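ok so i was messing around last nite and threw this chain in just to see what happens. nothing serious, just curious
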Amino acid sequence: MKSLEKDCKSITLDDRTHTLIVTSPYPAATLATAILSRALMRSSGRFQITFGQPVMSIDALNELRTKYETSAVFMIGIDTLGSKRVKKGRSYPILIGGTSESEQLASFTLGTDSTMPSAAYVLAKSHVELDPYDLQLAAAGTLVQDSINESKKGAGMDIIKLAEKEGLIEERKGFRLFGIGMLPLDEAFLYSTHPYLHTLSGNQKACDELLNKSEIPVPKLRSPLSSLSSSEAQRLTSQLITRLDPEVIPQLLGKDYIFTQERETCPLRYASGIEITATTAWVRRELGASMSVWLGDRGRALRSLIDSHMSHHKDVISAIQRLDLGLVSESTPSATIVKILGSKTEILPDVGRIALSNRLVGSDRPVVLDNEESYTIIWPSAGLSIKQVLHSLLGNGILPVATSPQSITIAGPSEMKETSLQIVTALTAAGG
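result:
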């Protein structure tokens, strides 16, 4: 963090100037944006937030710079493609995280993709006095940046240690599901899609049998998972292990973090809950709603986001069950193409992710889900990042929409869709 503090000395947040914050949909980037936004709000600065793709061409950046010529521009978690000169306007854009092919922008970049929340926190702190919630946001962004299980280094580790010292987070081990402190026991499993539990998700009878075999007391059946005693949780875990694919267990059980300042019933009390909520908001293109929650709304915005979240996962599970009953697909050595008529466009990235992980389609190659309104390509390996895919597609003049960490949606003629699929399959075959 000392290195970031040094770099921040040359960057100012001018509350007399309108500020435009352009953020990628990555959860860590949106949380970093919330930190910066709260600092501007505290100083009564004028600003607006807009959501961009994780990779942007220099031409698109220059168009943005021209449109907001008198504004200060911050780009968070966005790579810039191209080596043309960047227009200055009132000042040069500041990149927090991301990479650039332009040597000119290198001197205006703060931190890296792995330190976005830390960089935003240090920059905000250099401008105004922050409160514990800002540190909580930085810790949350750091934890969900790559994987909660991964050890953090450098500035990220400093943020986690600082949050622990301030009593804002506590490490725990146990279930990692959405709503473990909020949803009734059976519903936490019944509506789980992160991870999808093949024998339980969408199967009420199987969920009831699970709880019965685990000898969960009747009064606790409508209580959340977090209310179980150690012995009850152990019995439930033992039953789950016999029912689930061994590959799913590490996703369901493991290290997590509690945010102690959040209410026990809040889905954002757990780092895993924040990660799932943020990723679902990206998939559903409800980033504005999630930003309201990150900024501190624990009332109407959070309730709306939870309702949308539950509706989404019910729709995803329903679509998976239909695929499981009768999958009609066209399979090639390099990809699987599935016509999924009648399914909502916003569920396709999650449906594709689950179809791959549960081997409903070839798990070693991309799957295309086509509902005639949307042509969505989902690839199997998290080792192939959305930025790698976007760099390749933009280099070929194709402008897709990043719809999740492992999917894109293509709008355009069939030739463009075929070229996009060829590029993604080639990247997948090359191991990312």
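not much to say yet. The longest helix spans residues 300-325.
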